[in-house]
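Q: How would the structure tokens look for this protein?
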Amino acid sequence: MKKILLISLLLFSKTIFCQVNDSFSDGNFSQNPLWNGDVSYFQVNPQKQLQSQGQQLASQTISLSTANQLSLNASWTFLVRLNFNPSTTNFVRIYLSADKENLKGSLNGYFIQIGETGAADACHLYKQTGTSTVRILTGNQKTRASAALFLARIKVTRDAFGKWDLFTDITGGNNFTLEKSVVDKSFVTSSFSGLVCRYATASRYNQFIFDDFSIDDLTENTTPPTIKSVSVVDGFNLDITFSKPVDLSSASAANNYNLSGGYGAPTSASSTALANVYRLTFPKELISGNYTLGVNNVKDVTGNGIAANSLINFVHIKTYTPKYGDLVINEIFANPSGSPSLPQKEFVEIWNTTSEYILTAGWKYADQTSTYTFLRDTIKPNQHFILTTQADELLFKPYGKTIGISPWPSLNNDKDMLTLTDNTGNLIDKVAYYDTWYKDEQKKKGGYSLELVDPKNVCGGTQNWSASNDVSGGTPGKPNSVYRSQISSEIPKLLSASVIDSITVRVEFSKAIDSLSAANPASYSINNGIGNPKSATIEAGFNVSILKFSSQITRGVEHKLTLTKLTDCAGNVISATENTAKLFIAKKIALNDILLSEVLFNPKVGGVDFVEIYNNSNQVLDLKDVQLANLGADGKAANI
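A: Here is the predicted structure in token form.
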């Protein structure tokens, strides 16, 4: 005797003259609608589909049930996926109507069965009287993608005279084909709907999958379709979801759609595998912004037309990868005490300097002691937004977009470093500020913010910040009071280069240098086989680079440092005539390396004393630790 496991699962609740849908998008089947029975043997899988999860035991029966009173003038729609080859011992029954809650026993009703002898795998309509069943409609044989997969979306309708129509789409979509019709009105009432999964192969216990169940009252099917939602698939494709199944021909007519912003009609409109969802494809890529999609002349399957000029608004944010300086720390209110009229609470203002929408989910704002990670948020083009503590958020909302954060990196009145990094850890902006940046002794005592002078001059350093000139003490949410362009046409020059140790060199420039070019090791090179540094770090003022080399600088040998392709923030390339410097690590001074070669101790009137020294060696010498002194009467050095 074969081991048979019977699983019975009843469909969702249906009150007469109501439309009910259950796509399991809520992740459960315990409410909306309520399922009763052996609920522990079923699950909503990660794809938000109903899936069998029975025990691998012999002759086990499990069931769920819910009410449905529709029998005449009704429509049933559902998706079935069987991850095996159905047969007479491994099959599914979908009960459209039944007068008993227990679908495993004696009842009066109708069901669709999938599973039979051979490879036909048709959908047949049966009538059940007590425990006796008879086929009243034979469906068409199905073509399957593989022998171990059955997939179909099934629709069954029944009118007031008992006429049954069977429709299927074997791709799982909504492009239904009428298979057969039959008239039977033996039973015209119903109390329950549901399904029965039966298998004699233990491995089938979790291979029955269902989705998108709906039962509709056809007597009430005069409601026209509406636009339920629009989603952006990518820059060229939109998915529009209708409130109910729509006529394929009208929904696939591209001229029935119109997108604002000069996009007009799509090049194509096509059905998808998702219920009531159509994909619109446009020839030109959507930019970030607000859009309105208009729809006309689309009808449902019974001919009800969508309202003329139906509109839906949506926002598209094009994927954009911000770079350093796209968002800048624009204003710092570190010492709010005594502010003329602003809330006397700390804030930092950040400004999106680009024309792009920027998503900040996972970004980090930090000082040297604490870090805040942004939740999902969108910063609009050229928008200022204010960061403050959660407790003070409402105080600053009148000034513009405000985000109250916790933990709050408390601002030091003097000497603090603030950083803004994206969700991959890339630096977007950094400010190491000091109270000397106010350039006003009275304002630095409190009540006034530090404002960025020129946000585009991202390497302006100290000269790019000043105390606010606004009478309120600051300008949160609006352009800074001290704003002016500081981009200069002056060509940057190499001022000096000094050896810190045998592999480290400090380079100083005449003005702030673009951080990307300054941090590029290829911008620097030392002769004598040393080559490019392995790293280049730009300091906070953007006018000093620290270079680390793999090869050591030879003591006592003259080296030449050459800079190439370095630019300032305005793009001015470093001077070709002032881009080199000599580098030395002096030899240790030995006896007689340095000689006193000339002394003037009794100059003429108006003259001065001097001592001339002479490098008596053949190498470079460093006078940093050399001292010149008199010899005192006691034989010790004096007047050093």
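The helical segments are 248-251, 393-396, 515-518.

Residues 444 and 562 are 41 Å apart (CA to CA).

Upvote if useful.
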